[in-house]
Amino acid sequence: MPDGWNHITLTDESLSRVAVQIADNIVSALPSFQEYRGHLENGLRSQLEVAYKGGTREVINFSAPTSEGGIVAFGVVQVLPKVPAEKDESDVSAIARILSELDEDEPIAPDITLIRLPHAGKAIQAISHELYGGAAQNPIKLFSFRTYVPTSQGTLLVGFETPNIDIEIEMAQLFELITSSLVIEEK
């Protein structure tokens, strides 16, 4: 994990406290997000509950004020169920197929790329922009960077999100660097 990132362990009892802590970090780095504070807490709590139910026990968060506003990033590593492959379809191709199928809640499919991680093999990288806050009058636009790695145990998801759309190229490079350090050792 990079220096300066908050490493947070999730428990059933800590989900609400962690949502408040991350919202505090975001607002301290981006004071203009104060108006979204309640919405951030609720949305984060919901995301953390889903992740926790899916087996996530660790999340990372980075928030820092800057002279130009602030930098915020949120990361999660989660083991998802193995994606069912169709006849003669590889696990990586199955992941790409599932990600490219549009959901009625997602108006735009993510940009999907086949990549090779140095210590984890073939993976799928999905990059998208999402609106956080749904029906809110001024939803927050997020840059989402997710990497899906098929393993014998399931699909490993390494995901990052940031509202720093103005520096998304630099954030993508950071997220790519972190993800490329991933090592998978199959048992």
The overall pLDDT, averaged over residues, is 85
How many helices? The count is: 4
Distance between the terminal alpha carbons, to the nearest Å? 23 Å
Helix content: 25-40%
Residue fraction in strands:
25-35%
* Topology as a string of helices (H) and strands (E): EHHEEHEEEEH
Oligomer: single chain
**Order of adjacent strands in the largest pleated sheet:** 1-2-3-7-6-5-4
Described by strand count, sense and barrel closure, the largest sheet is: 7 strands, antiparallel
Q: Can you tell me about this structure?
A:
The protein has 187 residues and is of the alpha+beta class. The protein is 29% helix and 32% strand. The chain has four helices and seven strands, in the order βααββαββββα. The chain has helices at residues 15-29, 37-53, 91-100, 168-180; strands at 6-9, 58-64, 71-80, 111-117, 121-132, 140-150, 155-162. Strands 1-2-3-7-6-5-4 form a seven-stranded antiparallel sheet, with helices on both faces. A hairpin with a 4-residue loop joins strand 6 and strand 7 (155-162). The mean pLDDT is 85.
